[in-house]
Write a structure and sequence with these properties.
alpha/beta, five-stranded mixed β-sheet, 23 helices, transmembrane helix
């Protein structure tokens, strides 16, 4: 078979192919999609305020301490924003576009793809590593995360680096020679960076796999190969300096909030209404890892049968504890299980290669005239399971196609050509993937999933999503504020629409609150201030403003879909109008001439 598609070892050309495919998939829409996730806007705004204040220790969203995640992602975003400003010559953080804050996520996503290939080669061989990385480069969830200024794509890169090194050390545990310092340093440095990015989350796959393997094998001696004493010293040297500074700056409140509220609070209750039942990730995975979810579903039985194989055992230990913990936690979001996707991709690809080899062996047996009754045939349960997986996968594919084609009609009231293209590509890719997997030609399958998956993500996220103007309320409002700015110091206050993206786009000083706060904002600065009010809040806002002797003057009306809330919103932009009940202006009464001035002559006809 062609060396490109079934290599014995990964060469630089393979990594170049994967990097180009990942960039081709991730870049469309990268600069044109406005801030579309609440956390993205919060992260970007906190980084902007770091650059504005030059305080790179404390994390704040406006005047509120953001004691949720460590500082690592903000340092990376600050570096990329500063680099973009140096290139463009524009040094005002208020005008730096959102894509400058997304660059660490893009880099992290591409790195995660390349590291999946590296880790896969260490565990299963070059072909499985290359194929798994290809699946990662076109999957739905990573394509979305690469376009958002958040922690998850960068965290994924650190997880894959740490787990790849840990897996190789585990597989080599019986060899007399200790692992290289390169592997050991990769593990500990990745662990330290991961903690700085998202706190203890990286410990779930790392400690989960170590504990699972330790109990399953009844052998803990291999952990000495990690060189724990110098390794822990490296991690502490990376993490402790900032940890001490933030503890001093917040008097310990950061850790009380980050661990007690943010981390442990998600266990008991669904924060920000992001709750879900156990099994949530088992359902959402079919879409979030599409199109590769087909191979994972078909390979599940193979992985269980091979669970005593070291590489498969390690991947199962990587996946199962982390997955079960997140299924048990009350707060659920699709990206929480993203750190397990590389291991799932590796198992799915390894199972596919095993099926292809088994099919080739069966064809050889047929050519040798081996009696039919002596040929290996899948059991009935296996055939039923396969058809169940295929049918479920095709249903998910059809749903994705309908979403791509139907979103413009639902939100814009019209059929966009890009929507039909996106829906058609997704449907064709899903069907072709099923057919090519059945045929068992690795070359065609690789080319098909790469081309179809990439084009589907490009069309949905690069063409359809930016064109859904009804979704982008915050950019529309921010543009209207800029167009109707009354003074250089004009500030917006909003009631009923409190999206963090509005703060990022309209400026750090934007106020979010209740109708009385917005009324006070207009009354305190009637000549310059602007107010944004949702229709449900207008009666209270008008009453509060009337109590202050003012009336609202409409500037512009907005209607759009607030996707964070899942409903349509009617909003109005106001400025302060004339005082209520003010006397009408009258002409001044004529005054008699002064004694030393002659009276003006009355005009004669």
């Amino acid at each position: 078979m062609n060396d490109t598609f079934r290599p014995a070892v990964l060469r630089p050309v393979h990594y170049v192919i994967l990097a180009l495919l990942a960039l081709a998939t991730f870049l469309p829409g990268f600069t044109t999609i406005p801030p579309f996730d609440r956390d993205e806007s919060r992260f970007a705004q906190a980084t902007r305020q770091m650059l504005e204040t030059r305080d790179f220790v404390s994390i704040r969203f406006q005047d509120e301490a953001r004691n949720k995640k460590p500082v690592g992602i903000h340092w990376l975003q600050s570096a990329t924003v500063t680099a973009v400003q140096a290139v463009t010559g524009e040094h005002d953080p208020e005008t730096t576009p959102i894509w400058a804050y997304r660059l660490p996520s893009l880099i992290g996503a591409v790195a995660a793809v390349l590291l999946t290939a590296w880790a896969g080669q260490l565990l299963f061989g070059a072909t499985a590593g290359f194929g798994a990385a290809l699946l990662m480069s076109v999957c739905v969830l990573l394509s979305v995360e690469a376009r958002m200024a958040k922690t998850d794509a960068v965290l994924l890169a650190t997880v894959v680096a740490a787990m790849g090194a840990l897996g190789r050390i585990y597989l080599d545990r019986r060899k007399p020679m200790p692992p290289t310092w390169g592997l050991t340093l990769t593990f500990w440095i990745a662990l330290g960076v991961g903690i700085l990015i998202k706190g203890p989350v990286i410990l779930l796959p790392v400690l989960g796999s170590i504990i699972t393997l330790g109990f399953a094998d009844r052998d803990w001696s291999w952990l000495k190969s990690l060189r724990p004493l110098p390794g822990l010293a490296i991690v502490l040297a990376m993490v402790l300096p900032w940890a001490i500074l933030i503890a001093i700056a917040t008097k310990g409140q950061f850790f009380a909030d980050a661990i007690g509220h943010e981390f442990l609070g998600k266990v008991n209750s669904g924060q920000e209404k992001h709750a879900g039942p156990p099994g949530y990730y088992l359902i959402t995975f079919w879409l979030s890892f599409w199109p590769g979810s087909l191979l994972v579903g078909l390979g599940a039985a193979w992985a269980w049968r091979r669970r005593h194989d070291d590489a498969v055992r390690f991947c199962l230990a990587w996946i199962v504890p982390t997955w079960l913990i997140f299924e048990a936690v009350a707060t659920k979001l699709p990206h929480y299980v993203l750190p397990t996707f590389p291991a799932l991709a590796l198992l799915g690809m390894a199972a596919l290669l095993s099926r292809i080899d088994a099919k080739a062996a069966a064809e050889k047996a047929a050519n040798r005239n081996v009696p039919r009754e002596e040929r290996v045939r899948p059991p009935l349960a296996g055939r039923i399971g396969r058809w169940a997986v295929v049918i479920l996968y095709l249903i998910i594919t059809a749903a994705l196609a309908v979403l791509g084609a139907g979103a413009p009609l639902r939100l814009e009231g019209t059929n966009l050509p890009a929507g039909f293209v996106a829906g058609g590509l997704a449907l064709a890719t899903g069907i072709a993937f099923v057919v090519l997997e059945r045929i068992g030609c690795l070359k065609r399958l690789t080319l098909g999933v790469a081309a179809g998956g990439a084009l589907s993500m490009i069309s949905i996220l690069g063409l359809v999503m930016p064109s859904l103007k009804a979704m982008w309320l915050s950019p529309t409002i921010a543009q209207a504020v800029a167009d109707h700015r009354l003074c250089p110091t004009t500030t917006l206050a909003a009631a009923g629409y409190t999206e963090p993206s509005l703060v990022f786009l309209a400026g750090t000083k934007t106020k979010l609150g209740e109708p009385d706060m917005v009324a006070n904002h207009l009354a305190d600065d009637p000549g310059c201030a602007l107010a944004l009010v949702r229709d449900k809040e207008e009666p209270a806002f008008a009453a509060q403003l009337a109590a202050r002797g003012l009336s609202p003057e409409l500037v512009k009306h907005f209607r759009g879909f607030n996707y964070s809330r899942g409903n349509w919103a009617n909003l109005a932009l106001y400025r302060a109008g004339a005082p209520q009940n003010a006397p009408a202006a009258t002409e001044p009464a004529p005054q008699p001439p002064a004694a030393d001035q002659p009276a003006q002559a009355t005009p004669q006809p």
